[in-house]
Amino acid sequence: MNDMRIVERAVETRNIKISARGVQVHYGDKHALRDVDVDILDNTVTAFIGPSGCGKSTFLRCLNRMNDTVAVAKVSGTILLDGEDIYDRRVDPVQLRAKVGMVFQKPNPFPKSIYDNVAYGPRIHGLTRNKAELDEVVEASLRKAALWNEVKDRLQEGGTGLSGGQQQRLCIARAIATSPEVLLMDEPCSALDPIATAQVEELIDELRASFSVVIVTHSMQQAARVSQRTAFFHLGNLVEYGETGAIFTKPSDPRTESYITGRIG
Ligand SMILES: Nc1ncnc2c1ncn2[C@@H]1O[C@H](COP(=O)(O)OP(=O)(O)OP(=O)(O)O)[C@@H](O)[C@H]1O
Q1: pLDDT tens across 107-162, in order?
Q2: Cβ 52 under 6 angstroms from ligand 1
Q3: Are the C-beta atoms of 53 and 216 separated by less than 8 Å?
Q4: The domain at 15-260 falls in which architecture?
Q5: What is the 3-state secondary structure (H, E, C) of 204-218?
Q6: Where in this chain does the entry annotate a coiled-coil region (predicted)?
Q7: Whose C-alpha lies nearest to ligand 1, atom 11?
Q8: Rounded to whole angstroms, how far apart are CA atoms 92 and 94?
Q9: In which order are the strands placed within the sheet that holds 100-103?
Q10: Measured from the CB, is residue 70 less than 6 Å from ligand 1?
Q11: Is the terminal CB of the chain with fewer CB neighbours within 10 Å at N or C?
């Protein structure tokens, strides 16, 4: 019986990709995030939900040190990626962001060709040795992002000339071209129509085979459709975290229940 418990614990430990403890964020005097503890699992889609201003994006941005770029932001606590402290002085945030990629709310392709958008990360991180290898990475990333068939004959055309949904898939291809271990998505479908949204949701489900995906969403239907784990934030606190099905069907905190039934929002 004891042996059994040891085996179960070992499996759980191996599956933790990011472990956050006591994370606090201040923007000047504003205490935006309070004492957040959470373990994010590998090969899992984790959704962050909660009312506007509750700190979802703030916490997401802690996970690849994007808050470093906000002068007034002060982050404390511990965040481990595979057991390594990402806020350790020796960690280069640019290298970290290649491992923990990010896709933003509004598609933001660079004013470069479709090819160069995807090749950008592998080039700056020196991930390929020659043009043939780079071509392979570009093609593989565009295929994973379900965009290859639509753009393969116009790779030298500008990325900004694509439709909104295609641009967002191009940004996903750009983010996955550096072979990240975690992909952070901040409301990735909010600028997309229902068809493009469905394509990106399908893609998210496929991407979890390769890495851990964390998505901030205002849509509870989307959280229920794409995620296996859900974290509910309220007024800077992580109120409840667990299996998505359980959070939506039998939340344990009354604040979660009020939010998912539409009483607070
Ligand atoms: N750069 C900033 N400077 C000052 N305050 C900020 C900054 N970014 C966020 N905040 C504040 O921190 C709190 C949390 O914001 P955050 O963007 O994380 O919330 P959110 O849950 O993602 O909201 P939304 O769903 O509206 O995007 C809010 O009160 C917000 O006003």
Answers
A1: 999 999 999 999 999 999 999 999 999 999 999 999 988 899 999 999 999 999 99
A2: yes
A3: no
A4: 3-Layer(aba) Sandwich (3.40)
A5: HHHHCCCCEEEEECC
A6: none
A7: 32
A8: 5
A9: 100-103, 182-186, 212-216, 45-49, 229-234, 237-243
A10: yes
A11: N
